Amino acid sequence: MRPKRRPRENSPAGGWPAALALGAGTALLVNAGLLSPWLARAAWRGGTVLLAGVAAARGLARLTGRLAGARRSLPAGACTVEAGVLEPAGSGLVPAGRDRTRAVGTLVTLAVAFWGAANGFLPPGRRTVPVLTYHRMAVPPRRGYPVPTTSPADFAWQIEWLASRGYRTVNPDRLERADETLPAKPLIITFDDGWRDNLDAARLLRRYGFSGIIFVVTGEIGRPLKLDAAQLRSLERDGFLIGSHTVTHPHLDCLPAEARWRELLDSRRFLEDLLGHRVELFASPYGSSDLTPGLAALIHQAGYRWAFASHNFGLNIVPPHPWAVRRLLVPSHPLLARLEFLLLLW
Fold first, then answer.
1. Distances (CA, A) of 3 to 6, 91, 110, 112, 191
2. Yes or no: is domain 128-344 CATH 3.30.750.24?
């Protein structure tokens, strides 16, 4: 006959190790999206505050656990009363009060760990700049369409929402100076691949006094559904910036060094011949090698002043790192896009 399993007793620390791991992991993930890519300058401050908060929360969790566990030292045959239920001491059951204090200890650990990391890595008063990423501006043709597509109605709502909350678009060079002329809520709007329906988006942006950046795959200029040379020049005259998105839109980290270099350099030279001036903006496709020092160095050598990530999600502290600017990919689904705006851009 199999013996009955004795109910497991909870440690008086209130389950703090699991709570600490969850709290610290959540805090670090959030901050990884909100910080500029090079964390070294801020890591010591955030780590110190985080450890101090964890130590305080651990002490509180142990104290509450011991207070709740004191009831278990009653003599055999004695009874405890919890919420009107009479239970014999030593029965192996965990009192309801102990569950409550354990929950309190866990919540405090989570809250303090998260608060410590957030305030350590992001000191109050630091200005941030969101960089939005769009692709196509059209009614999604079918479910599972491979390119993120925002309908004109949803795009109009998003731009009106941003304008009503004081956001104003800026060129990247203004972020580098970060002087008193910078708007209270700076914003950069980018479009990847060079789709022709970006012309409709540009007209709406101009209506609100906004501008944007079009990152073009140079090998696809003039193809069906893509912008041609005359349209790119027209967008520039209207205040939009044109940047490189490579020649063939490859996974850069899957290419040998020479091919990666040609994608960066040839696309820049092609656009410079087309537009008649220096091109200094680049966005990597697929998130390939985003934010890595190796790609940053290569981008710098290729003559770019600014490089924008594709899949490294988050805001940027002003001024951002010039060769690793984070972006927020705007989801195709309107409800997800609105949730992203409400959570990150309020």
1. 9, 16, 37, 42, 66
2. no
